[in-house]
Amino acid sequence: SPSGAPAPVGEDVLHYQAHYRDFFSEFEVLSISPDKQEAAFRIVSRRSDGRELRVDLSPQSFQIAADSRGELTGQRFETFEQVLSAMDGAEAFGTRLCDLVSAQLAGKLGGLRAAEPDGEAADDGDDDDGGAPAQLVES
């Protein structure tokens, strides 16, 4: 049924290639089926060993069709993140992810600070009266 159909995995592969490039040194789309429900790609680790995986993607899973180390061939994963974690090790994947998030947050904070005049904190509504509470003036 069209309403319950999963998103085409062919589009997912292009998303991974564009948005996860910090996690691999190479990503090559090998094939996308005409209905975009199956795809194959080759991914190479950023690590010094240059581990290479060939992955077949279907709406059900990521299946490792080939592994240059021979360890993951035949295994199935539910998410692209699991594939990356299996390729480089969970610790390396987690560290890389944390580094990227930290760099992104630092960039956003730097952008916010640059947008403020003179780099000072945003106006808190206090008119620099030394922090004294506002006084009611009786007339």
Order of the strands making up the biggest sheet: 1-2-3-4-5
Overall average pLDDT: 79
* Assembly context of the chains: single chain
Kindly provide the radius of gyration, computed on alpha-carbon positions and rounded to a whole number of angstroms. 25 Å
Query: Helical amount among residues, as a percent range?
Result: 25-40%
Structural class: alpha+beta
Separation, N- and C-terminal Cα atoms = 76 Å
Can you count the helices? 3
State the low-pLDDT regions, or none.
none
Total beta strands: 5
Shape: globular
Percentage of β-strand residues: 15-25%
Main sheet makeup = 5 strands, antiparallel
- Could you state the order of secondary-structure elements as H and E? HEEEEEHH
How would you sum up this structure, described in words?
This protein is α+β, with helices and mostly antiparallel strands and 139 residues long. Helices cover 33% and strands 19% of the residues. It is built from three helices and five strands; from the N terminus they run αβββββαα. Strands 1-2-3-4-5 form a five-stranded antiparallel sheet. β4 and β5 form a beta hairpin. α2 packs across α3 (90-115). The chain is globular and about 55 Å long.
